[in-house]
Amino acid sequence: MTKQVQQLDRVIIRFAGDSGDGMQLTGDRFTSGTAEFGNDLSTLPNFPAEIRAPAGTLPGVSSFQLHFADHDILTPGDAPNVLVAMNPAALKANLGDLPRGADIIANTDEFTKRNLQKVGYDGSPLEDDSLSEWRVHPVPLTSLTVKALEGFDLSKKDAERSKNMFALGLLSWLYHRPTETTIKFLETKFAKRPDIAKANIAAFQAGWNYGETTESFSVSYEVKPAQLPPGVYRNISGNQALAYGLVAASVKSKLPLFLGSYPITPASDILHELSKHKRFGIRTFQAEDEIAGVGAALGASFGGALGVTTTSGPGVALKAETVGLAVTTELPLIVVDVQRAGPSTGMPTKTEQTDLLMALYGRNGESPLPVVAPATPSDCFDAAVEAARLAVKYRTPVMLLSDGYLANGSEPWRVPSSAELPDISTEFATAPNGEDGTTFLPFKRDPETLARPWAIPGTAGLEHRIGGIEKADGTGNISYDPNNHDKMVRLRQAKIEGIAHDIPALDVDDPDGDARVLVLGWGSTYGPIAAAVRRIRRAGGKVAQAHLRHLNPLPANTGEVLRAYDKVLLPEINLGQLALLLRARFLVDIISYNRVRGLPFKAEELAGVIQDVIDSE
Amino acid sequence: MSEIQNGRGLSLVPKSDVKLGMKDFKSDQEVRWCPGCGDYAILAAVQSFVPELGLRRENMVFVSGIGCSSRFPYYMDTYGFHSIHGRAPAIATGLAASRPDLSVWVITGDGDSLSIGGNHLIHALRRNINLNILLFNNRIYGLTKGQYSPTSEVGKITKSTPMGSLDKPFNPISLAIGAEASFVARTIDSDRKHLHSVLREAAEHKGTSLVEIYQNCNIFNDGAFDQLKDPGQRDAITLRLEHGQPIASATKAVRRGADGGIEVVPRSEVSEEEILVHDVRRPDPSLAFALSRLDEPAFEHVPIGIFRSVDRPSYEELMTEQLDEAIGKGGPGDLDDLLLAGDTWRIG
Ligand code: SF4
Q1: Residues of B numbered 24-53 whose beta carbons fall under 8 angstroms of chain A's beta carbons: which are they?
Q2: What are the tens digits of pLDDT across the range A327-347?
Q3: Is the CB of B34 under 6 A from ligand 1?
Q4: Residue span of the signal peptide, if any (chain B) (predicted)?
Q5: In a domain, B283, yes or no
Q6: Which single residue of A122, A469, B92, B254 could bond B63 by disulfide (Cβ 3.0 to 4.6 Å)?
Q7: Which residue in A36, A288, A329 is closest to B120 by CB distance?
Q8: Rounded to a whole number, what is the distance in angstroms from the first to the last CA of chain A?
């Protein structure tokens, strides 16, 4: 039977199933095939905090959304065109996001009475007309998989486990994905269990063949490769990019990396990743708690290492006192906060931008530090290098604000060569800097950067003591002098503010130069905002866009940019934290748009908000 | 090298080319403890002892937390870090783990290390990172002006406990042994000779050494250790622990009890063979723990000296080995190779 092939410019697929169904792996593999094929793509994993919530229940549903296209795209997509529902819970949990006409591939084997009851279905929605708005493809995924694996020496349970690979095979056929990488992946993953590798490959191929032969799918789809700037690409998640950025920062600063960290969702992957790279001389230390993690990192910085700690919001709260110590002792330190929904434990696997004010002000005393935020998953790499540059050059802790959406989302990344990356090396103090030629003044500053010398133990003649007590300007000796304290508070502030001259100006994207409305963003909202801006422009609307990478200090031209527009719209996944700062600082009447659902914004949603602001002009 | 250490503790710390003296370790900062405070004696003991180690001054680092004793680093002309309450072991851990060429000392007190920093202390001990922790125990909060501490005796009347404290104190030696410490010792501020000998053993020990130093706070808890200093009582209650020697004083001796534990009996009642011989290297910590309980609940028999000193790999040694192994297998890391590892594709 020859089947029709239809061309599409973009597709959004969501794989959904029980936490134990292997949906994240299935999504990952589909992503790899898609990346290899050359589409642009963006992914959004969404999983429960519980490792294995009760099987078949709504809280146990795990999903993975992938958006791929023949052009460059900015978000994992608002609404799926295809939902793969491995059980009734997955269908019920995701149906609300499905636009009319979308395809549903449902694993009929799991639509048993018991499973239906678990999620409150009276009868099977596959059998009544409740799904008539969608195109439903009922597929007995589990039993087809078991049948395909009959020749293997596997228990029924083990055979059933390969049903995700069957689904992957079917979807790979449906969208003309290459199969070699997945086969190679399975061979490597199960190198020690060749029987399991073979079974998974057989299930994968059976899924593909099923697509080709079944009547249930009459059309398959092609999405041509995207035209991206030339280069070598790989797919990368935010956490992995951030970890690689830290490795790069160590190489380019010529400082050994020391990571002190305590496991916390969604930041632990950075610890895992860096632990693999001991060949770079990286020391990773899993501490007894968050405080020890940052303490050890600061101790290592005192000794001349690039000290890093990685955590999420609750951990930042615990580390605050030590970060303050880093501020006052003026030592380099990178504090990575992969923000998650709060307060308190909140929703550990869900995303938010609610730690901005804590990053800026969550310490006692006047305690300024630079804050840097990546905009996309792959941008976590550059943001990490930038955070390290500032930390090392200005001898200061730097807060790097990623979030759960960036951490777990992925996109193709044009891999830079080491030679393209900036040299961020610094020099340790080696000789006395006092007027008399023999004394060492640990707080005598560089006149330009206001950074103090970094004299590390082992350097003869520069023995000195630092600490949390206020220091006398220059000598660093304990000082309770009122005027000295006032001076030191202002010097520390001036040092951080001075960085504004060492970062790029805020760049505005305003193609015709006549937009009256500016949409401003920071951090992970970049993708949805840019996608919304495109929609407005495509419909003939005029809107300018600017995105802040540096939240402290702000680029020197920020006020000028804000005042140049009639209206400034600022979407944030918090209740208006950056808006509060900008209003106070620049007296600009920012229009906030805030949603705090633990999810990224949707492009369509933001396009509507932008249009409303334009219309109110 | 001492009789009981194998010399690994300082093997990676560079030696000084010139002979240094006590004055080389005195900083120009005015010492600001209350007159008569036991901290002075400890400072003088440390300053006079460190030149003996023959190390380069610049390779010594003193790290402290918060409390009276934590001002200590300011008075040593070495590198120093006066950090925040309870966190000195954590900060020192990062420093020692990344710089095995340093001799790192943590100066802490009973409040700093056993209350707010208790977690860091026990984890440093179990990890056995190459640190020397000097715990100045004055059984009171000095810097915050006299509240009871986690080593104050039950019923302590202080500003925060006008009717007496309710909680059972920690015995720092028992705690350290329970936390898998490889080196545990006790000494006293007034006995410089003993302090010297214990500090030397601690310095040369590879791994974390915990030295409890009884320290008199003459302002808020004066005389807490007077019995141990008073020539009239001292010898009757002190039990000197010396490696390879019988655990006994002129009047008392320690032997195995009928119930399997240990007991203190009048020396005249036991034959020399019955007296327990002290072995700091005993792998099993239970006897050292039993010794640490002899002064419970009151100061009846107070063991002074090294309770335990066993050899096991230190954390930073193992950490360095892992890096060396990884580099040995795959060569030093190459950034371009790392970034291009895995599935990649070329466009254009
Ligand atoms: S308060 Fe006590 S411990 Fe503190 S300096 Fe005075 S005497 Fe020493």
Answers
A1: 27, 29
A2: 999 999 999 999 999 999 999
A3: yes
A4: none
A5: no
A6: B92
A7: A288
A8: 58
Contact flag B59-A303 (C-beta cutoff 8 Å): no
CA angle (A540 as vertex; A534, A546 as ends), nearest 5: 40
Q: A544 lies in which domain range?
A: 508-615
Q: Are the beta carbons of B213 and B136 closer than 8 angstroms? A: yes
How many Å apart are CA A211 and CA A166, to the nearest integer? 10
Q: Which amino acid, B112?
A: D
Ligand 1 site, residue B66, Cβ cutoff 6 A: no
Instruction: Give CA–CA dist A88/A69, Å, rounded.
Output: 29
pLDDT by residue for chain B (348 residues), tens only, comes to 466 777 788 999 999 999 999 999 999 999 999 999 999 999 999 999 999 999 999 999 999 999 999 999 999 999 999 999 999 999 999 999 999 999 999 999 999 999 999 999 999 999 999 999 999 999 999 999 999 999 999 999 999 999 999 999 999 999 999 999 999 999 999 999 999 999 999 999 999 999 999 999 999 999 999 999 999 888 889 999 999 999 999 999 999 999 989 999 999 999 999 999 999 999 999 999 999 999 887 888 999 999 999 999 999 999 999 999 999 999 999 999 999 998 888 887
- A137 and A10 in a common domain: yes
DSSP 8-state code for residue B116: I
B221 touches ligand 1 (CB under 6 Å): no
- Closest residue to B81, CB basis, from A302, A415, A459: A302
Q: Which atom of ligand 1 is nearest to the CA of B38?
A: 8
**8 Å CB contact between A228 and A252:** no
A259 shares a domain with A283 = yes
CA distance A587 to A570: 15
Domain span at residue B164?
3-236
* Residue B338, C-beta contacts closer than 8 angstroms, at least 6 positions apart: A244, A247, A277, A280
Q: Indicate which of B79, B101, B322, B334 best probes the interface with A, i.e. most A CBs within 10 Å of its own CB.
A: B79
Q: Which residue has the tokens 């020396």?
A: B267
Taking the Cβ of residue B100 and every Cβ of chain A, the question of whether any pair is shorter than 8 Å is answered with: no
Contact B215/B136 with Cβ under 8 angstroms?
yes
Q: Are A232 and B57 within 8 A, CB to CB?
A: no
Ligand 1: centre distance to CA B158 (Å) = 15
Is the same domain home to A446 and A343? no
Interatomic CA distance for residues A298 and A210, integer angstroms: 57
Nearest CB to B94; choose among A300, A416, A478: A300
Query: What is the Å distance from ligand 1's center to B212 Cα?
Result: 17
Closest by CA to A242, choosing from A88, A90, A379, is A379
Q: Same domain for A383 and A435?
A: no
Q: Mutating which of A29, A240, A279, A438 best tests the B interface, going by the most B Cβ atoms within 10 A?
A: A279
The tally of domains found in chain B comes to 1
Contact partners, residue A199, CB within 8 Å, separation at least 6:
A149, A152, A154, A158, A159, A162
- Could you write out the DSSP letters of every residue in A151-182? TSS--HHHHHTTHHHHHHHHHHHHTT---HHH
Yes or no: say if A165 and A15 are a contact pair by the CB < 8 Å rule. no
pTM: 0.94
Domain count, chain A: 4
B179–A contact, CB cutoff 8 A = no
A250 and A257 Cβ atoms separated by less than 8 Å: yes
Q: Do residue A354 and residue A451 come from a single domain?
A: no
User: DSSP of A62-100, one letter per residue?
Assistant: EEEEEEEESS---SS-SS-SEEEESSHHHHHHHHTTPPT
Q: Token pair of B51, please? A: 């030149």
